[in-house]
Write a structure and sequence with these properties.
Elements lengths: L1 H43 L5 H11 L3 H10 L5 H8 L5 H16 L2 H33 L5 H51 L5 H4 L11
Helix pairs in contact: 1-6, 1-7, 2-3, 4-5, 5-7, 6-7
């Protein structure tokens, strides 16, 4: 099992040089981060907040018991934050900080994907420049007996690094965009839920004409 892997890596190194090897290592890193984030998102219940929405809607309608019952069914990672709000925590800044702490935990690793998405094309271009330099040096050493296949082969190998760089960068950028969209949706949900709990449309506080709670900023 190990011998074929070593042979494949040796062929890649011989074909594309150290730049391609770096890009291959980055692709393994990206795959590891993506798999971990998918597991983390699934375990935290990112995007799955049906019971949490029911709890907030019940609270907004003045049904305190229904809100508690719905919240008890929730498995969302935002449940503790909403529970704090339902339990009487009125400090909007504290609640927002609690929510942001959970968002930051789920957004860890995004910087790695962003860095790879930006650096991989540059590394590919760098490999292409190095390959072109080697190709023209070989052409110069050939002197008068110039073989066009020498230049063509060198250019082909040089352009390979650019192709590998793009192949690593594009999926990284696409997956990062999808992860960020999921987190943006959850952040909007949390902001709206906290605003609703702190300033419900019904219930004792609203009936007495209590002033609206301090707004929660994203």
């Amino acid at each position: 099992m190990i011998a074929p892997v070593k042979q494949a890596l040796a062929e890649i190194f011989a074909l594309g040089g150290p730049v391609v090897m770096i890009l291959v290592a980055l692709s393994v890193l990206v795959l590891t981060v993506v798999l971990y984030k998918l597991w983390q998102f699934t375990a935290a219940g990112v995007g799955r907040h049906a019971a949490l929405r029911d709890a907030v809607a019940a609270w907004d309608a003045g049904d305190r018991a229904g809100a508690r019952a719905a919240l008890d069914r929730s498995r969302s990672y935002l449940r503790p934050v909403i529970d704090m709000a339902l339990s009487g925590q009125r400090d909007a800044a504290r609640l927002q900080a609690e929510a942001e702490t959970r968002f930051a935990r789920l957004e860890s690793g995004f910087r790695v994907l962003d860095t790879v998405a930006q650096m991989a094309p540059l590394l590919g271009l760098f490999g292409t420049v190095l390959g072109m330099i080697s190709a023209f040096q070989a052409l110069q050493d050939a002197g008068a007996s110039v073989d066009p296949s020498i230049l063509a082969g060198g250019i082909w190998v040089a352009l390979l690094t650019t192709a590998v760089g793009l192949a690593v960068a594009m999926p990284s950028a696409l997956v990062l965009s999808w992860f960020e969209a999921r987190m943006d949706a959850d952040r909007l949900l949390a902001e709206r839920a906290l605003r609703t709990v702190l300033a419900p449309g019904h219930g004792p506080g609203a009936a007495r004409g209590a002033p609206a709670a301090e707004p929660v900023h994203a």
